[in-house]
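Subject: sequence -> structure tokens, single chain

Hey, anyone have a minute? Need the predicted structure for the following. Not urgent.
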Amino acid sequence: MKNKEIQSEEIWNDKKKEGLKEFISSHSAKQSKEQLLTNKLLSIQYKLEDYIENDSDDSVLKILDFVKMYLKELNLTKRKLATYFEMRDSNLQKYLSGERKLNAEVALKLSAFSHTKPEHWYRVQVKNELIELNKEKHRVAEYQKYDYRNLVEI
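Reply:
Had a minute. Here:
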């Protein structure tokens, strides 16, 4: 008796795919508002973690982009978040947009707010700085004028 290799089409044909979609939809309809919100917030957390882990620098996402995702799902404004964080809106904006470097206090507030690790917020910042550095590497020759040997006699 010869073993036949199972083809993916035999497992996931259109009928089975449609059945799976129906199952997911019916299960989702039974979830409470809190469960649905939790799932949406987890989805954002996974996007955050995926962004940090992904080596691709095709698209740059700022801390602000992730915070906006949370605010949208929670139906909150950035101004309300700033008030909640005991900060001025303009000050929070500078941290979220990358104009100011994230500090421990803001990272911990974001962490508590989003139920994520504070390190994740720092890692977004560092990843974006490395992307910026890599974009500038082609100009390395221009920076050779800053070599210490041009400044001191050896």
